[in-house]
C-alpha cells in the first residue's frame, strides 16, 4: 500500500540515533526531535522502513513506523497549523522532470 509513513523512535545512544537520522534524512521530513514523515512519493511501507532500520538498533531501542490508510492519511492534522506541514517531496528527494 502506498501512503505516508510516520516514524517515531526512542533511542538512548547518540551514535545509534545518528545512524537512524542519517538513514531517514534522504527521503523523510523531520517534524520533531524523534519524529519523521515519509511522503507517499517515496514509495515506502512501514514494513520496509522497519526492516531497513532493524540493523541499526539494539533490542533496548524502540522504533515505530505507522502507515495510515489513504483515507486516514487525508484526515491527519498537525498543530500548530501555521508551523510544519507534511511535504510531498522532502528536501532529500530529488525528482527528475525528464
TrEMBL record:
Question: What are the alphabetically sorted keywords of the record?
Answer: Antiviral defense, Endonuclease, Hydrolase, Magnesium, Metal-binding, Nuclease
- At the top level, the lineage of the source is Bacteria
Q: Does the keyword Oxidoreductase apply?
A: no
- Listed Pfam families: CRISPR_Cas2 (PF09827)
**Which cofactor(s) does the record list?**
Mg(2+)
Sequence similarity: Belongs to the CRISPR-associated endoribonuclease Cas2 protein family.
Protein name per UniProt: Uncharacterized protein
Q: Which organism is it from?
A: Protofrankia coriariae
Amino acid at each position: 500500500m502506498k501512503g505516508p509513513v510516520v516514524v517515531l523512535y526512542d533511542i538512548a545512544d547518540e551514535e545509534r540515533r545518528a545512524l537512524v537520522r542519517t538513514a531517514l534524512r534522504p527521503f523523510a521530513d523531520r517534524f520533531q526531535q524523534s519524529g519523521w514523515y515519509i511522503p507517499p512519493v517515496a514509495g515506502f511501507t512501514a514494513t520496509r522502513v522497519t526492516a531497513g532500520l532493524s540493523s541499526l538498533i539494539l533490542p533496548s531501542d524502540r522504533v515505530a513506523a505507522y502507515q495510515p490508510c489513504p483515507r486516514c492519511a487525508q484526515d491527519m492534522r498537525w498543530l500548530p497549523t501555521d508551523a510544519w506541514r507534511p511535504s510531498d517531496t522532502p528536501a532529500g528527494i530529488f525528482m527528475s522532470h525528464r
